[in-house]
Amino acid sequence: MSNRALIIVDVQNDFCPGGALAVEQGDRIIPVINQVAPRFDVVVATRDWHPADHVSFASSHEGKEEGETVQVGDLEQVLWPDHCVQDTAGARLHASLDLRPVNLILHKGTRRELDSYSGFLETDHRTSTGLAGYLRELGVSQVTVCGLATDYCVLFTALDSVDAGFSTRLLTDATRAIDVPEGNLEKAKTRMKEAGVTFLESAGLS
Ligand code: VGL
Ligand code: ZN
After folding, report:
1. What residues pair up with 52 in beta bridges, in sequence order?
2. How is domain 4-50+89-204 classified at the CATH fold level?
3. Most CB contacts within 10 A, which of 99, 113, 120, 180?
4. Where are the domains of the chain?
5. Calpha distance 97→57 (Å, rounded)
6. pLDDT tens, position by position, 21-55
7. Does 10 sit in the ligand 1 pocket, CB within 6 Å?
8. Which atom number of ligand 1 is nearest to the Cα of residue 152?
9. Which ligand neighbours the alpha carbon of 66 most closely?
10. For residue 79, which ligand has an atom nearest its CA?
């Protein structure tokens, strides 16, 4: 079997305009995703799903501000505003996202002490979400990644997809970036290209 999967990363209210960690034009990608999703054999939507006192929140570290980094064990953690707190309105998938073609909704970043940008492996690069096994069980060989944000969760999901052995593509018109610090988007694109991720637009999707 050589099934094709679409992974829709974190199209949640908090990453869309008006949300706690809004990505510019984040909601513009939704019509594109709705259009292409039914063409895939397997569709997975991820949700960033943090406890209220999550390690990635600046508010969890006294005297620290958003954008600063802290050392957590041997990991460097970027600090964000509180976002995607489990079962809050901000953590919901955007109401315009068509859930009919979605097979699996996967939660990540659910442990207080561990962040997860990737849909495959949490930030310690050891703790698996089970996604690679799920896709393999369904005979998936090719993974297309879209969603928010290009330079964080989409980037690490795409890199881990390559590492897991899937032929991996980025759907460029169905992703938007945070681009903080400035230049981060270009860096992310370079990293993906070097890892072997191919880029394509929805118009070129067969
Ligand atoms: C994300 C920052 C913090 C993302 C998640 O979905 O790209 N970015 N948590
Ligand atoms: Zn997060």
Report:
1. none
2. Rossmann fold (3.40.50)
3. 120
4. 4-50+89-204
5. 26
6. 999 999 999 999 999 999 999 999 999 999 999 99
7. yes
8. 7
9. 1
10. 1
